[in-house]
Amino acid sequence: MRFWPFRRREARSIDKMALWGTGELSLDEIHAGVPVSRETAARLVAVYACVRLRAETISGLPAGVFRRRGDERERVEPGPEWLRQPNNETTWFEFIERVNTSLDFDGNAFVLIAGRDRLGFARELWTLHPDEIQIRREKEGLVYVWGGSERLSRFDGVFNPLGDVLHIKNVSWGSDRAPSPIGVARQAIGLGIAIEKFGARFFGGGQQLSGVIELPATSPELAQEFAEQIREYWQSTYGGSDRSHLPGILTGGAKWTPISINPEEAQFLETRKFQVAEIARLYGIPPHMIGDVERSTSWGSGIEQQSIGFVQFAIGPRLSRLEAAFDQLTPRGQFIKWNVNGLLRGDARSRAEFYAKGIQWGYLLRSDARRFEDLPQVEGLDRPLIPANMIVLGEKAPIPLDVPVIAAGSENGRADSLAATNSE
User: Fold this and answer.
1) Model confidence pLDDT, tens digit, residues 278-321
2) Alpha helices in 217-262 (DSSP H)
3) Residues 176-195: b if buried by 16+ CB within 10 A, e if exposed
Protein backbone atom coordinates (compact mmCIF):
# COMPACT_ATOMS: atom_id res chain seq x y z
CA MET A 1 0.00 0.00 0.00
CA ARG A 2 1.43 3.35 -1.06
CA PHE A 3 0.62 6.76 0.33
CA TRP A 4 2.17 8.81 -2.44
CA PRO A 5 0.58 8.59 -5.91
CA PHE A 6 3.76 10.16 -7.24
CA ARG A 7 5.39 9.80 -10.57
CA ARG A 8 7.21 6.49 -10.48
CA ARG A 9 9.04 3.92 -12.58
CA GLU A 10 8.71 0.14 -12.80
CA ALA A 11 12.38 -0.68 -12.22
CA ARG A 12 13.10 0.12 -8.59
CA SER A 13 16.01 -0.28 -6.23
CA ILE A 14 14.88 0.74 -2.76
CA ASP A 15 17.42 1.81 -0.20
CA LYS A 16 16.28 0.16 3.06
CA MET A 17 17.49 2.77 5.53
CA ALA A 18 14.68 2.98 8.03
CA LEU A 19 15.99 5.72 10.29
CA TRP A 20 17.65 7.88 7.70
CA GLY A 21 15.24 7.32 4.87
CA THR A 22 12.95 4.53 3.85
CA GLY A 23 11.94 0.99 4.58
CA GLU A 24 10.57 -1.04 7.47
CA LEU A 25 12.32 -1.54 10.78
CA SER A 26 12.99 -5.08 11.96
CA LEU A 27 11.16 -6.46 14.98
CA ASP A 28 14.44 -6.61 16.89
CA GLU A 29 14.53 -2.81 16.92
CA ILE A 30 10.91 -2.41 18.14
CA HIS A 31 10.48 -3.37 21.77
CA ALA A 32 6.69 -3.52 21.39
CA GLY A 33 7.14 -6.48 19.02
CA VAL A 34 5.23 -5.06 16.04
CA PRO A 35 6.56 -3.98 12.62
CA VAL A 36 6.78 -0.22 12.09
CA SER A 37 6.83 1.34 8.64
CA ARG A 38 5.11 4.27 6.98
CA GLU A 39 2.30 1.94 5.94
CA THR A 40 1.71 0.54 9.43
CA ALA A 41 2.19 3.95 11.09
CA ALA A 42 -0.38 5.54 8.77
CA ARG A 43 -2.96 3.05 10.03
CA LEU A 44 -2.56 4.52 13.50
CA VAL A 45 -5.27 7.14 13.76
CA ALA A 46 -3.14 9.73 15.61
CA VAL A 47 -0.36 9.60 12.98
CA TYR A 48 -2.81 9.81 10.09
CA ALA A 49 -4.66 12.71 11.74
CA CYS A 50 -1.48 14.74 12.32
CA VAL A 51 -0.17 14.23 8.79
CA ARG A 52 -3.55 14.89 7.18
CA LEU A 53 -4.19 18.03 9.24
CA ARG A 54 -0.95 19.78 8.34
CA ALA A 55 -0.98 18.67 4.70
CA GLU A 56 -4.55 19.75 4.04
CA THR A 57 -4.21 23.00 5.99
CA ILE A 58 -1.16 24.15 4.05
CA SER A 59 -2.55 22.95 0.72
CA GLY A 60 -5.69 25.01 1.27
CA LEU A 61 -3.82 28.28 1.87
CA PRO A 62 -3.58 30.76 -1.01
CA ALA A 63 -0.09 31.19 -2.43
CA GLY A 64 1.32 33.71 -4.87
CA VAL A 65 4.56 34.98 -6.37
CA PHE A 66 5.65 38.53 -5.53
CA ARG A 67 8.45 40.89 -6.49
CA ARG A 68 10.02 43.69 -4.49
CA ARG A 69 9.87 47.26 -5.76
CA GLY A 70 11.98 49.19 -3.30
CA ASP A 71 10.15 48.95 0.00
CA GLU A 72 6.94 47.76 -1.64
CA ARG A 73 5.82 44.31 -2.66
CA GLU A 74 3.66 43.63 -5.70
CA ARG A 75 2.06 40.44 -6.93
CA VAL A 76 3.38 38.90 -10.13
CA GLU A 77 0.57 38.09 -12.55
CA PRO A 78 -0.09 35.59 -13.95
CA GLY A 79 2.84 33.96 -12.15
CA PRO A 80 4.61 30.70 -13.06
CA GLU A 81 2.66 27.91 -14.69
CA TRP A 82 3.49 25.38 -11.97
CA LEU A 83 1.78 27.56 -9.36
CA ARG A 84 -1.52 27.13 -11.22
CA GLN A 85 -1.04 23.45 -12.13
CA PRO A 86 2.30 21.68 -11.62
CA ASN A 87 1.58 19.02 -14.26
CA ASN A 88 -1.26 17.70 -16.38
CA GLU A 89 -2.30 15.13 -13.76
CA THR A 90 -2.06 17.07 -10.50
CA THR A 91 -3.65 20.22 -9.11
CA TRP A 92 -1.68 22.63 -6.93
CA PHE A 93 -3.61 21.45 -3.86
CA GLU A 94 -2.72 17.80 -4.51
CA PHE A 95 0.88 18.65 -5.31
CA ILE A 96 1.51 20.56 -2.06
CA GLU A 97 -0.42 17.90 -0.13
CA ARG A 98 1.95 15.23 -1.47
CA VAL A 99 5.01 17.32 -0.65
CA ASN A 100 3.87 17.79 2.95
CA THR A 101 2.86 14.13 3.30
CA SER A 102 6.27 13.06 2.08
CA LEU A 103 7.99 15.36 4.59
CA ASP A 104 5.91 14.07 7.51
CA PHE A 105 6.26 10.39 6.63
CA ASP A 106 9.74 10.16 5.12
CA GLY A 107 11.37 13.45 6.17
CA ASN A 108 12.23 14.24 2.54
CA ALA A 109 10.35 15.50 -0.50
CA PHE A 110 11.77 15.09 -4.00
CA VAL A 111 10.38 17.30 -6.78
CA LEU A 112 11.33 16.48 -10.36
CA ILE A 113 11.64 19.43 -12.76
CA ALA A 114 10.31 17.75 -15.90
CA GLY A 115 9.75 20.77 -18.14
CA ARG A 116 11.19 24.27 -18.61
CA ASP A 117 10.22 27.39 -20.51
CA ARG A 118 12.39 29.12 -23.12
CA LEU A 119 14.26 31.01 -20.40
CA GLY A 120 15.11 27.84 -18.50
CA PHE A 121 12.69 28.32 -15.62
CA ALA A 122 10.67 25.38 -14.32
CA ARG A 123 7.32 24.83 -16.02
CA GLU A 124 6.35 21.26 -15.04
CA LEU A 125 6.88 19.68 -11.60
CA TRP A 126 6.32 16.12 -10.36
CA THR A 127 6.69 14.61 -6.89
CA LEU A 128 8.84 11.48 -6.74
CA HIS A 129 8.21 8.59 -4.37
CA PRO A 130 10.96 8.73 -1.70
CA ASP A 131 11.33 4.92 -1.72
CA GLU A 132 12.62 5.16 -5.28
CA ILE A 133 15.36 7.70 -4.56
CA GLN A 134 18.91 6.89 -3.50
CA ILE A 135 21.29 9.74 -2.67
CA ARG A 136 24.96 9.33 -3.50
CA ARG A 137 27.75 11.81 -2.89
CA GLU A 138 30.21 11.70 -5.78
CA LYS A 139 32.95 13.94 -7.12
CA GLU A 140 30.53 16.15 -9.01
CA GLY A 141 28.32 16.50 -5.93
CA LEU A 142 25.05 14.88 -4.89
CA VAL A 143 23.52 12.45 -7.35
CA TYR A 144 19.94 11.21 -7.05
CA VAL A 145 19.42 7.72 -8.45
CA TRP A 146 15.78 7.27 -9.39
CA GLY A 147 14.35 3.82 -9.95
CA GLY A 148 17.73 2.18 -9.48
CA SER A 149 19.24 3.40 -12.75
CA GLU A 150 18.37 6.94 -13.80
CA ARG A 151 20.83 9.50 -12.46
CA LEU A 152 19.50 12.96 -11.68
CA SER A 153 21.36 16.05 -10.54
CA ARG A 154 20.38 18.25 -7.61
CA PHE A 155 18.69 21.53 -8.46
CA ASP A 156 20.10 24.66 -6.88
CA GLY A 157 18.95 28.12 -7.87
CA VAL A 158 22.49 29.55 -7.67
CA PHE A 159 25.03 26.80 -8.34
CA ASN A 160 23.03 24.45 -10.55
CA PRO A 161 19.86 26.14 -11.86
CA LEU A 162 19.49 23.44 -14.55
CA GLY A 163 19.45 20.56 -12.06
CA ASP A 164 16.72 17.94 -12.11
CA VAL A 165 15.59 17.40 -8.50
CA LEU A 166 14.52 19.97 -5.92
CA HIS A 167 15.22 18.25 -2.59
CA ILE A 168 13.25 19.56 0.41
CA LYS A 169 14.34 18.22 3.79
CA ASN A 170 12.44 18.26 7.06
CA VAL A 171 15.05 18.20 9.85
CA SER A 172 18.36 17.30 8.21
CA TRP A 173 20.77 17.15 11.19
CA GLY A 174 23.48 17.96 8.67
CA SER A 175 23.02 14.78 6.64
CA ASP A 176 22.37 14.42 2.91
CA ARG A 177 19.04 12.78 3.68
CA ALA A 178 16.78 13.86 6.52
CA PRO A 179 15.67 11.23 9.04
CA SER A 180 12.19 9.81 8.81
CA PRO A 181 9.92 10.95 11.67
CA ILE A 182 8.50 7.43 11.66
CA GLY A 183 11.97 6.00 12.22
CA VAL A 184 12.89 8.51 14.91
CA ALA A 185 9.71 7.81 16.89
CA ARG A 186 9.59 4.11 16.06
CA GLN A 187 9.28 3.01 19.70
CA ALA A 188 6.41 5.39 20.48
CA ILE A 189 4.58 4.49 17.27
CA GLY A 190 5.23 0.79 17.82
CA LEU A 191 3.74 1.05 21.30
CA GLY A 192 0.67 2.79 19.90
CA ILE A 193 0.21 0.05 17.27
CA ALA A 194 0.64 -2.67 19.90
CA ILE A 195 -1.91 -1.04 22.23
CA GLU A 196 -4.42 -0.69 19.42
CA LYS A 197 -3.92 -4.33 18.43
CA PHE A 198 -4.32 -5.45 22.04
CA GLY A 199 -7.58 -3.51 22.39
CA ALA A 200 -8.98 -4.92 19.16
CA ARG A 201 -8.14 -8.48 20.19
CA PHE A 202 -9.48 -7.97 23.69
CA PHE A 203 -12.90 -6.80 22.57
CA GLY A 204 -12.93 -9.21 19.64
CA GLY A 205 -12.54 -12.12 22.04
CA GLY A 206 -15.77 -11.17 23.75
CA GLN A 207 -14.99 -12.15 27.36
CA GLN A 208 -14.52 -9.19 29.66
CA LEU A 209 -12.29 -11.31 31.92
CA SER A 210 -9.85 -14.07 31.17
CA GLY A 211 -9.65 -17.05 33.52
CA VAL A 212 -10.00 -20.78 33.96
CA ILE A 213 -12.93 -23.19 34.29
CA GLU A 214 -12.42 -25.35 37.38
CA LEU A 215 -13.90 -28.89 37.17
CA PRO A 216 -14.71 -31.24 40.05
CA ALA A 217 -12.31 -34.11 40.73
CA THR A 218 -12.96 -37.16 38.49
CA SER A 219 -11.05 -39.68 36.44
CA PRO A 220 -8.50 -38.29 33.95
CA GLU A 221 -10.40 -39.67 30.94
CA LEU A 222 -13.71 -38.14 31.99
CA ALA A 223 -12.00 -34.88 33.02
CA GLN A 224 -10.38 -34.48 29.59
CA GLU A 225 -13.61 -35.20 27.72
CA PHE A 226 -15.65 -32.93 30.00
CA ALA A 227 -13.08 -30.09 29.70
CA GLU A 228 -13.22 -30.17 25.89
CA GLN A 229 -17.01 -30.12 25.94
CA ILE A 230 -17.07 -27.18 28.37
CA ARG A 231 -14.49 -25.23 26.32
CA GLU A 232 -16.38 -25.73 23.05
CA TYR A 233 -19.67 -24.85 24.70
CA TRP A 234 -18.23 -21.68 26.27
CA GLN A 235 -16.60 -20.47 23.07
CA SER A 236 -19.63 -21.12 20.87
CA THR A 237 -22.04 -19.56 23.36
CA TYR A 238 -20.11 -16.54 24.65
CA GLY A 239 -17.36 -15.95 22.07
CA GLY A 240 -17.44 -12.75 19.99
CA SER A 241 -18.34 -9.16 20.84
CA ASP A 242 -22.05 -9.69 20.08
CA ARG A 243 -22.37 -12.19 22.96
CA SER A 244 -19.88 -10.63 25.37
CA HIS A 245 -22.47 -9.52 27.95
CA LEU A 246 -24.62 -12.66 28.10
CA PRO A 247 -24.79 -14.34 31.52
CA GLY A 248 -22.52 -17.37 31.75
CA ILE A 249 -23.85 -20.77 32.86
CA LEU A 250 -21.63 -23.71 33.76
CA THR A 251 -22.92 -27.21 34.62
CA GLY A 252 -21.56 -30.36 36.16
CA GLY A 253 -19.98 -28.59 39.10
CA ALA A 254 -17.69 -26.41 36.93
CA LYS A 255 -16.71 -22.99 38.26
CA TRP A 256 -15.34 -19.91 36.44
CA THR A 257 -12.34 -18.27 38.11
CA PRO A 258 -10.97 -14.99 36.65
CA ILE A 259 -7.19 -14.73 36.73
CA SER A 260 -6.38 -11.49 34.91
CA ILE A 261 -7.04 -7.80 35.49
CA ASN A 262 -9.31 -5.70 33.31
CA PRO A 263 -8.07 -3.02 30.89
CA GLU A 264 -8.85 -0.15 33.29
CA GLU A 265 -6.70 -1.76 35.98
CA ALA A 266 -3.93 -2.25 33.48
CA GLN A 267 -4.10 1.49 32.57
CA PHE A 268 -5.04 0.49 29.04
CA LEU A 269 -7.08 3.60 28.28
CA GLU A 270 -4.58 5.94 29.93
CA THR A 271 -1.77 4.49 27.85
CA ARG A 272 -3.78 4.99 24.67
CA LYS A 273 -4.40 8.64 25.60
CA PHE A 274 -0.72 9.17 26.33
CA GLN A 275 0.29 7.77 22.95
CA VAL A 276 -2.05 10.20 21.19
CA ALA A 277 -0.36 13.11 22.99
CA GLU A 278 3.07 11.61 22.25
CA ILE A 279 2.42 11.43 18.51
CA ALA A 280 0.92 14.93 18.50
CA ARG A 281 4.14 16.08 20.20
CA LEU A 282 6.17 14.38 17.47
CA TYR A 283 4.49 16.42 14.73
CA GLY A 284 4.08 19.62 16.75
CA ILE A 285 0.28 19.49 16.50
CA PRO A 286 -1.94 20.78 19.36
CA PRO A 287 -3.56 17.63 20.79
CA HIS A 288 -7.03 19.19 20.75
CA MET A 289 -6.86 19.42 16.94
CA ILE A 290 -6.74 15.63 16.66
CA GLY A 291 -9.38 15.04 19.32
CA ASP A 292 -7.40 14.98 22.60
CA VAL A 293 -9.04 17.85 24.49
CA GLU A 294 -7.80 16.87 27.96
CA ARG A 295 -4.37 18.42 27.43
CA SER A 296 -5.47 21.37 25.31
CA THR A 297 -4.80 24.01 27.99
CA SER A 298 -1.04 23.59 27.59
CA TRP A 299 -1.37 25.38 24.21
CA GLY A 300 -3.27 28.37 25.59
CA SER A 301 -6.25 29.49 27.59
CA GLY A 302 -8.74 29.06 24.77
CA ILE A 303 -9.29 27.54 21.35
CA GLU A 304 -8.24 30.81 19.69
CA GLN A 305 -4.87 30.86 21.46
CA GLN A 306 -4.37 27.19 20.68
CA SER A 307 -5.10 27.82 17.01
CA ILE A 308 -2.57 30.67 17.01
CA GLY A 309 -0.05 28.23 18.46
CA PHE A 310 -0.86 25.80 15.66
CA VAL A 311 -0.08 28.47 13.05
CA GLN A 312 3.10 29.62 14.81
CA PHE A 313 4.66 26.28 15.67
CA ALA A 314 3.17 23.69 13.30
CA ILE A 315 2.35 25.66 10.13
CA GLY A 316 4.75 28.61 10.22
CA PRO A 317 8.07 26.70 10.18
CA ARG A 318 6.84 24.36 7.43
CA LEU A 319 5.71 27.32 5.30
CA SER A 320 9.11 28.98 5.73
CA ARG A 321 10.80 25.76 4.63
CA LEU A 322 8.60 25.46 1.54
CA GLU A 323 8.97 29.13 0.64
CA ALA A 324 12.77 28.91 0.84
CA ALA A 325 12.73 25.88 -1.46
CA PHE A 326 10.28 27.13 -4.10
CA ASP A 327 11.83 30.62 -4.14
CA GLN A 328 14.68 29.01 -6.08
CA LEU A 329 12.31 28.25 -8.96
CA THR A 330 11.38 31.91 -9.46
CA PRO A 331 13.41 34.61 -11.26
CA ARG A 332 15.78 36.71 -9.19
CA GLY A 333 13.96 39.29 -7.12
CA GLN A 334 10.77 37.22 -6.97
CA PHE A 335 9.57 34.98 -4.18
CA ILE A 336 6.60 32.78 -3.28
CA LYS A 337 4.45 33.57 -0.26
CA TRP A 338 1.67 31.64 1.46
CA ASN A 339 -1.08 33.76 3.00
CA VAL A 340 -2.03 32.40 6.43
CA ASN A 341 -5.04 34.73 6.46
CA GLY A 342 -6.70 31.99 4.46
CA LEU A 343 -7.16 30.19 7.79
CA LEU A 344 -9.79 32.82 8.61
CA ARG A 345 -11.93 31.75 5.68
CA GLY A 346 -14.40 29.87 7.86
CA ASP A 347 -14.52 32.50 10.64
CA ALA A 348 -16.69 35.43 9.53
CA ARG A 349 -16.25 37.32 12.81
CA SER A 350 -12.45 37.18 12.70
CA ARG A 351 -12.42 38.28 9.06
CA ALA A 352 -14.70 41.21 9.85
CA GLU A 353 -12.45 42.34 12.72
CA PHE A 354 -9.37 41.99 10.51
CA TYR A 355 -10.89 44.13 7.75
CA ALA A 356 -12.29 46.71 10.19
CA LYS A 357 -8.97 47.29 11.93
CA GLY A 358 -7.05 47.35 8.66
CA ILE A 359 -9.39 49.94 7.16
CA GLN A 360 -9.48 51.96 10.38
CA TRP A 361 -5.72 52.28 10.61
CA GLY A 362 -5.16 52.82 6.91
CA TYR A 363 -3.16 49.75 5.90
CA LEU A 364 -6.15 48.26 4.06
CA LEU A 365 -8.56 49.86 1.61
CA ARG A 366 -12.27 49.20 1.56
CA SER A 367 -11.78 47.96 -1.98
CA ASP A 368 -9.18 45.47 -0.66
CA ALA A 369 -11.76 43.95 1.68
CA ARG A 370 -14.25 43.50 -1.16
CA ARG A 371 -11.58 41.95 -3.35
CA PHE A 372 -10.55 39.50 -0.60
CA GLU A 373 -14.20 38.46 -0.27
CA ASP A 374 -14.57 38.05 -4.05
CA LEU A 375 -17.16 40.82 -4.20
CA PRO A 376 -17.56 43.21 -7.17
CA GLN A 377 -15.75 46.52 -6.83
CA VAL A 378 -17.62 49.73 -6.02
CA GLU A 379 -16.37 53.18 -7.04
CA GLY A 380 -15.09 55.48 -4.36
CA LEU A 381 -13.70 52.81 -2.01
CA ASP A 382 -10.05 53.00 -3.06
CA ARG A 383 -9.06 55.93 -0.83
CA PRO A 384 -7.42 55.12 2.53
CA LEU A 385 -9.17 56.13 5.75
CA ILE A 386 -7.42 57.19 8.96
CA PRO A 387 -8.77 58.09 12.42
CA ALA A 388 -9.51 61.81 12.69
CA ASN A 389 -8.13 61.98 16.23
CA MET A 390 -4.64 60.75 15.31
CA ILE A 391 -1.93 63.38 14.68
CA VAL A 392 1.85 63.34 14.33
CA LEU A 393 3.71 63.96 17.57
CA GLY A 394 4.57 67.67 17.92
CA GLU A 395 2.06 68.87 15.34
CA LYS A 396 -1.25 70.58 15.98
CA ALA A 397 -4.52 69.04 14.94
CA PRO A 398 -5.92 70.72 11.80
CA ILE A 399 -9.41 72.15 11.65
CA PRO A 400 -11.68 69.71 9.75
CA LEU A 401 -12.50 71.16 6.36
CA ASP A 402 -16.20 70.51 6.72
CA VAL A 403 -16.53 72.49 10.02
CA PRO A 404 -17.70 76.06 9.23
CA VAL A 405 -15.86 78.92 10.92
CA ILE A 406 -18.26 80.78 13.17
CA ALA A 407 -18.42 84.45 12.41
CA ALA A 408 -17.11 87.00 14.89
CA GLY A 409 -19.66 88.19 17.42
CA SER A 410 -21.65 84.97 17.39
CA GLU A 411 -23.70 84.10 20.41
CA ASN A 412 -21.85 80.94 21.41
CA GLY A 413 -18.60 82.76 22.03
CA ARG A 414 -16.36 80.44 20.00
CA ALA A 415 -15.48 82.86 17.23
CA ASP A 416 -12.40 84.21 18.97
CA SER A 417 -10.94 80.76 19.64
CA LEU A 418 -11.58 79.56 16.10
CA ALA A 419 -10.13 82.68 14.64
CA ALA A 420 -7.05 82.29 16.79
CA THR A 421 -6.65 78.69 15.71
CA ASN A 422 -6.95 79.63 12.05
CA SER A 423 -4.40 82.37 12.41
CA GLU A 424 -1.91 79.91 13.84
Assistant:
1) 898 899 888 888 877 765 555 555 556 667 778 888 899 999 99
2) 220-238
3) ebbbbbbbbbbebbbbbbbb
